[in-house]
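Colleagues,

Please find the record for the two-part complex below.
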Amino acid sequence: MSAKVLLHVGTPKTGTSHLQDVLFRNRERLAGHGIHYPADRFDGQFLAALDLMRMPWGGLETQAVGAWDDLAARVRAAEGTSIVSHEILAAASASEVARALESLGHGDGAEVHLVLSVRDLARQVPAEWQENVKHRATLSYAKFLRKIRDPHRNGRIPSWFWAVQEVPDILDRWGSALPPERVHVVTVPQPDAPRSLLWERFSSVMGLDGLELDLDSERANPSLGVPETALVRRLNRKVNRVIEPAAYRELVRELIVHRTLSQRTRTARLTLPPEVHPWAVELSEAWTAEIRDRGYDVVGDLDDLRCGPPATSYVDPDSPREKQVTSAATVALRALLEEHVRLMSERDRLVVERDEARWEAQAALSARLRRRLETNLAGRVALKAYRVGRGRSSLSA
Amino acid sequence: MSTSGPAEQQPGHPGHPGDPAVLAHAWVAHLVDGGTTPWADVLASGHVPGRVLDAEADELSLPGAQQLEVLRRLNERLATRGESAPWLAEQVLAVSPPGRGALDLPLSGLPARPYGARPADPARLPTAELLRVVTGLIADRLVGAPVPQESGQPVRERLGGAIADRLPRRHGYRLAGPVVRVGPVRDRLHAMGRRPGGRDATTYVVGAGMGRLVTDAWTTRVLDGVAPSWLEWLATWVDRDETPRRADLAGAAAVWADRSGGPGRVEVVLDAGLLTGLLDLPEPVRAAPPLPAAAVELLRQVSGVLAVLVGREERSRLLTDALRPRLTGAAGPPLVVPAAYAGWLTRRGQTLLGDLRAGGYRVHGPTDLLEHPLTDASVPGVAEPDDDGVLALALDTLADWRTS
């Protein structure tokens, strides 16, 4: 039984991919220090979260059968500290939270700590819309904003947004069974802070300080600019019906978005429209006060949760500059062509390898047959007849 | 009803019998006992039938409005049969709705919390939220449920050697086509001792009119795995101007021609009733009626939940052999291809007929159903499932489960 379990449940877009990649790639080194990150693949704990919440996810859920119970069993079997981390856990219902805590050993000897990383709404709202677009959504930014600001919160998009972003409610659902000192709120620093500061905060709360870890993460969930996001949204309209989820993940999300368009960092960034900004400020202020009152362990500065000033020059992703969208489309097309050429080369190489393998197999078979025939009289006669026949055929040809 | 303490008796005071939180706890107990009173009536009257209002008020421990409403609607169904099911209440109140949607919703009328899901009148919840609860419950019920076994030994074997030998041995056959069309015929033949196969067997590819071929292909797609919505799936094929793979009789016929010795060994039957004569059966075979649109949609939604609970083969088995039989015979109109796609349907039917003729297969039945397929403008049915109908069927299925 793990003596201590650090359960990091979100929120999305707070550096979670980087954290999880560092934990996964360093898991053996961490285990040497009594810190366990149970996962056999990078998305192992994501699958466990899907299983816990019975959440469809573009077909990935079929790989998640039994994954939570497996994860919980590994946590219970480990000694020392175990870390569980995935941001979609923020959306767990009260009964799923209860099941999760019990299965990880809460109330049965394990000291469970909750970790929630948080960022201000002025950055989270546009980031969530962009995540929706990266997951095949086609709704406009304006419609997204209308939906999430509707007090009724009816429908998949607002219910998901608030489930994973309403910090006080997430802390209610996940933290009400724990003493406040075991609930750790990690704030994401403001954009002008040193890049290493967020990692230092994660490292501190997870007890990783002083350990030599490889921090050069290969994975991140980078953001897109305004024209790039507009392009992907338009692309979704055209391809959603014809591209299966697995192909979309590989070609659109990985190749076009993550490896290509996210490299374009000079275009305008997504922000809140000026008229929506005061709403986000008011909510963030209320959340900050609430968290302060509850007496949680704050790692960082609660002022980080306050929204910065509104954008000085807002660029509407629903009416992007067409020249920039065209430029982004050209870059995406080039990336697709390069990938296509690479796959063609790979196909050609495999065809050559297959033909060589066939030829070698046939040659080996012929040699074996010849050797066997030469071991007896009948075989030698048959072989001679074959050679004579082949010779005649050759002559007549 | 509590009568002590003057302060606690004041209306509006927390813990007072008229306090909505106290009412809510009493209402939950009422539902667990099989009650059917809507929450809005309780809130308006300040009274819960048959309950004493002295419960501790703690709204955080209440189940979600969606689970409570599902339980109330199930109780209504059970009450009409004079039944109650306390064990069912326990399951309903404990289930967490699968997939994306609202978290556990607080009841309207309770003190508003500054954060979290907004309070809701259970009776006015979106149908989709109630469906999440019911499909989760059905999926839970399916996992580990005993699946009906195949019918017993064939007649020939059950009769024993001497008598069985007197039954004539007929020409061999095989049946090909979607399980929803071929399954019942195959089961019937099996029960009669007519096992498929044989060296000189003719393969009968069992089809239908083009519209039914498409809706059957959709049903089979749903039984095979996680599927998008009917209209999304259909639009994909229309956009491509192609025939859905599972509706392509010519493709199926070609596969069987390759396996069984050429097109002469494959015949296409567009009306399953014709199999009676083709197989020389003593009793007429009738095509199974299509499942109602609501039933197919329920299968689809339950399939989405099962995908996280069991592996692919097991999921298909549970849907086909455990849930589908419970939905067979349900009332309701079947799906039909929307009239807006009539042109596509006609093109696909004509192409299919051309492919069958070009392949040299013998075709039995009305080929005009391929050349001039009917759509929802002329065939009884609905162009898309209706959520309320799906919910009603899901609740009926769950309520029936215990008694069937």
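The longest strand of chain B covers residues 202-206.

Comments are welcome before we finalize the supplementary table.
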